[in-house]
């Protein structure tokens, strides 16, 4: 079931984000992720429309949209590769005519995932916090 998140769930969402980020981005030091955790909980998530994916009364993933921009899409690493991310994206895509997102270029799995959903790379930049290259990806109906 996909439903709106409550603020009380934000610590749990940050935990999913942190564990999934460590796994998906081994090229970024763990200290960087830990340093960003408060920002995620206190600034980024509250500024977004956050949807959670529940399975058996357990939150296993979430998406965070800010307007037409996907700020975050994360699934608990314990339950990845079962289509949960695709389900969250399908839900987000239903409510938008276009979506943009930034993804680290070295996160080949995520880039491939978004390409399968119809996203294309439209720009690139260097993330000022990590020095890593990022791609701006876009999708539209």
From TrEMBL:
EC number of this enzyme: 2.3.1.-
Alphabetical list of InterPro entries matching this protein: Acyl_CoA_acyltransferase (IPR016181), GNAT_dom (IPR000182)
Organism classification: Bacteria, Pseudomonadati, Pseudomonadota, Gammaproteobacteria, Oceanospirillales
Domain N-acetyltransferase positions: 1-141
Keywords annotated in UniProt: Acyltransferase, Transferase
GO molecular function, one term: acyltransferase activity
SUPFAM superfamilies: Acyl-CoA N-acyltransferases (Nat) (SSF55729)
Protein name: GNAT family N-acetyltransferase
Superkingdom of this protein's organism: Bacteria
């Amino acid at each position: 079931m996909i439903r709106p998140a409550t603020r009380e769930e934000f610590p749990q969402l940050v935990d999913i984000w942190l564990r999934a980020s460590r796994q998906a981005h081994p090229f970024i030091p763990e200290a960087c992720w830990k340093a960003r955790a408060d920002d995620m909980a206190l600034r980024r998530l509250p500024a977004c429309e956050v949807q959670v994916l529940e399975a058996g009364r357990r939150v296993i993933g979430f998406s965070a949209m800010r307007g037409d921009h996907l700020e975050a899409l994360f699934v608990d690493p314990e339950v990845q590769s079962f289509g949960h991310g695709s389900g969250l994206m399908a839900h987000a895509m239903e409510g938008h005519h276009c979506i943009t997102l930034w993804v680290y270029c070295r996160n080949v799995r995520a880039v491939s995932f978004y390409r399968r959903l119809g996203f294309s790379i439209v720009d690139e930049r260097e993330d000022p916090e990590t020095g890593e290259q990022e791609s701006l990806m876009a999708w539209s109906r």
